[in-house]
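Dear Dr. H.,

I hope your travels went smoothly. While you were away I took the liberty of generating a structure for the chain from your last submission, since the lab meeting agenda had it listed for discussion. I wanted you to have the full record in hand beforehand rather than looking at slides cold. The sequence, exactly as received, is reproduced here:
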Amino acid sequence: MKKKIFLLLIAIFSGMITVTSAQDTESITFTTYYPSPYGSYNQLDTVSLNIVNSSSAVGSINFQGSNNAPTTGVNGVGEGSLYYNTGVHQFMYMDNTNTWKRFGGSSSGSYTHYCFNNNLPGGLTPACPATDYAIDSQGPCDTGFTVTRIFGSWGSCTNVAGLQFFLPPGNSCGTAYGTFVVGRAYLCSKPQPAT
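The corresponding predicted structure, in token form, is as follows:
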């Protein structure tokens, strides 16, 4: 009986050694990082974008301007898309009719002209003047348009938790948020014909 138990134990241990050595013969380890901590992307889809401290201006998004509008339907370009037009020095957005429009109005009536403060890094253009443009002057407006309103400063609001949002021209961040002024904004309008 002891001999049978001894043989049984030898069989069990030799089976364990065989299984253990068979399991140890192949080992593959993969290390991945998701999302990638650094990189260039052809397309990046996000529900929320939180801008934090960087080597450039705090909370900056830098647009590479173009004189040519992006093509509708390519790389996700469609309603709600945004680009900076270097020809008219304006941000343009695509509306629900797949038409590029300036912020603040239509090309036949009025639009908002944004300029950048001179103290920002990189010499952004168009630069704001030292003093505001005069009402009813052409100022920064396209030919046929004049300055009809000075909206005031624009930029971003940030709280201590890092929440950041756009500060529309002439508005305030309130007391709970810090203000980062980027520039000033002006309403450019076509003069209305006398009635």
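Two observations you may find useful: Helices lie at 2-24. The mean pLDDT is 74.

With kind regards,
E. W.
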